[in-house]
Automatic annotation (TrEMBL):
Belongs to the PPR family. PCMP-H subfamily. Pfam families: DYW_deaminase (PF14432), E_motif (PF20431), PPR_3 (PF13812). Residues 206-298 form the DYW domain. Signal peptide: none annotated. InterPro entries: DYW_dom, E_motif, PPR_At4g14850-like_plant, PPR_rpt, TPR-like_helical_dom_sf. Keywords: Repeat. It comes from Davidia involucrata. One of its GO terms (biological process) is RNA modification. This is DYW domain-containing protein. GO terms for molecular function: RNA binding; zinc ion binding.
Length: 298
């Protein structure tokens, strides 16, 4: 629980209390600890716990622990260290390890290591669309449109289809689903009218649309329009329209929130004075007064 909500220090405090009570940790305990560290960037503590497993408790790290360490190092920008760590592993890296490296490479735009990770994860999970989408995201950030087409050709050859992206919000016992495909929401016009006003106010406060989140070879103005269609933005905006003032907004998305929508949600919470709770495909985010509980580390 502490890991999902970015409460790494609280997780460590609870671990110390557990030891004080004479309770011995097991492998699952260290998985939880390392997960807490990776979600809050506690690198030194992560190394300490990883080394302590075998040295102090005679617990041999499993692939889950190695994956957590790669994620911890990579998220924090220590990609070379993460790569060295993988090469020194006594276990064969699995898809979770390569996925952690690939995700970190996307965050920090490291193409060289990303292509190594992608080659391996495509081999291990050839039919997982999320891996291909992640690599296409990085190529888009670097304006490598031909490489994106190569990935799409590979997916088509294997019969791999991108999963549908959707977000939903419940208002007055009715669930409203916003999807990238299918019929538009019946209140679409009202939603976009409100969203345009929000974006204008957000820009006045310093918001800059992150057009790198759009992996289409179109001009910047068109990319900004594409960002407006992201399902979590639409769901949050609809919640702002249809719920009472000061009421919290609660949205669920089935995939990871993009960096632009994450930044936009912070501004929305600030401008409207609302708390916004968003559960994406990775974790929970609590936006309040222009900040997120993850401290922009997710």
């Amino acid at each position: 629980g502490f890991a999902i909500y970015s409460h790494g220090k609280e997780a460590i405090s609870l671990f110390d209390e557990m030891l004080g009570a004479g309770i011995q940790p097991d492998a699952i305990t260290f998985t939880a600890l390392l997960s807490s560290c990776k979600h809050t960037g506690l690198i030194d503590q992560g190394w300490k716990f990883f080394d302590s497993m075998s040295a102090d408790y005679n617990i041999m790290p499993t692939i889950e622990h190695y994956s957590c360490m790669v994620d911890l190092l990579g998220r924090a920008g220590y990609l070379d260290e993460a790569w060295d760590f993988i090469q020194a592993m006594p276990l064969a890296p699995d898809a979770t390890v390569w996925g952690a490296l690939l995700g970190s490479c996307r965050i920090h735009e490291n193409l060289e290591l990303a292509e190594i990770a992608a080659k391996n994860i495509f081999r291990l999970e050839p039919y997982n669309p999320a891996n291909y989408v992640l690599m296409m995201n990085l190529y888009a950030m670097l304006n490598k449109w031909e490489d994106i087409e190569h990935i799409r050709d590979l997916m088509n050859a294997l019969g791999v289809k991108s999963g549908h992206v959707w977000s939903w919000i419940r208002i007055n016992q009715t669930v409203h689903v916003f999807s990238a495909v299918g019929k538009p929401h019946p209140d679409e016009g009202e939603i976009y009218f409100e969203l345009y006003h929000l974006i204008s106010a957000m820009k006045n406060l310093g918001y800059e649309p992150d057009i790198k989140c759009v992996y289409q070879s179109i001009n910047d103005a068109e990319k900004e329009k594409v960002l407006l269609t992201h399902t979590e933005k639409l769901a949050i905006t609809y919640g702002l329209i249809k719920t009472k003032s000061k009421a919290p907004i609660r949205v669920i998305k089935n995939t990871r929130i993009c960096s632009d929508c994450h930044e936009a949600a912070k501004y929305m919470s600030l401008i409207r004075g609302r708390e916004i709770f968003l559960k994406d495909g990775v974790r929970f985010h609590h936006f309040r007064e222009g900040k997120c509980s993850c401290n922009d580390f997710w």
